[in-house]
Amino acid sequence: MDLGIKGRRAIVCAGSKGLGRGCAEALAEAGVDIVLNARGAETLATTANDIEARFGVTVTPVAADITTPEGRAAVLAVAGDVDILVNNAGGPPPGIWSDWTREDFIKALDANMLAPIAMMQACLPGMMARGWGRVVNITSQSVRAPIAQLGLSNSARAGLTGFVAGTARQVAGAGVCINNLLPGLHATDRADALDGAVVRAEGITMDEARARRFANIPVGRYGTRDEFGAMCAFLCSDYAGFIVGQNILLDGGAANITI
């Protein structure tokens, strides 16, 4: 399927692996040139070279921490005029309500709410002036079905969701569509870390930890980065111009939510 975005230019944040990489690969397959960001320069360079070789698009790596003003400035300085923005950053650590200090909340807000807002504020004016743009924010299933031990993530990502709800409707008339993708558990480093924590805490095997999680996912497995990336690419396509301010859950049916 031709998504109608060949020759467009995108920023993909935290895109050297995991769900961010899935998004970058799907956009590149659709013919989009990528400004690819991540913190680790070596992995980032390897990923950029691989995507460029496989799909024949231009991939420009920018090693920087997108959650900091300096990191965002570095990405934006290289990116120039972009048509597509994929916001992504790793989530804060799990815990319980009594663990978290004000500083913990500020750090979570900076990474998972204020950083994507700042990137949107930087990119939206140009998109609006050119009459076309797409923004996809990678948030979490916890926005729709909060997870007790992920209170920092619940809080920060809910704030971003509220910002998008208003902003998406303010810019839609200029041809710019903003939506959020809410991943459940996917086969990424994040899932490995969560499963590893259960292994250490309960003295079980990794297979046992995963079997327990799979039992709570109706499809009986984790999602893949390819599946996730394909949805991201569609939301960035010419066919998604009537999808505005939505929170799209990709969790294998784990959260039983009807509205």
Describe this structure in words.
The chain has 259 residues and is of the alpha/beta class. The protein is built from eight helices and seven strands; from the N terminus they run βαβαβαβαβαβαααβ. Strands 3-2-1-4-5-6-7 form a seven-stranded parallel beta sheet, sandwiched between helices. The mean pLDDT is 95.
Question: What is the mean pLDDT?
Answer: 95
- The number of helical runs is 8
Radius of gyration: 18 Å
Question: How would you sum up the major sheet?
Answer: 7 strands, parallel
Structural class: alpha/beta
Write the layout of secondary structure elements.
Layout: E1 9-12, H1 18-29, E2 33-38, H2 41-55, E3 59-63, H3 69-79, E4 84-87, H4 102-130, E5 133-138, H5 151-171, E6 176-183, H6 189-202, H7 206-214, H8 225-235, E7 247-250
Parallel strand pairs: 1-2, 1-4, 2-3, 4-5, 5-6, 6-7
Helix pairs in contact: 1-2, 1-8, 4-5, 6-7
What's a quick, concise take on this entry?
By secondary structure, the chain is of the alpha/beta class. The protein has eight helices and seven strands.
What features would you highlight for this structure?
7 strands; 8 helices; alpha/beta; 47% helix; 259 residues; globular
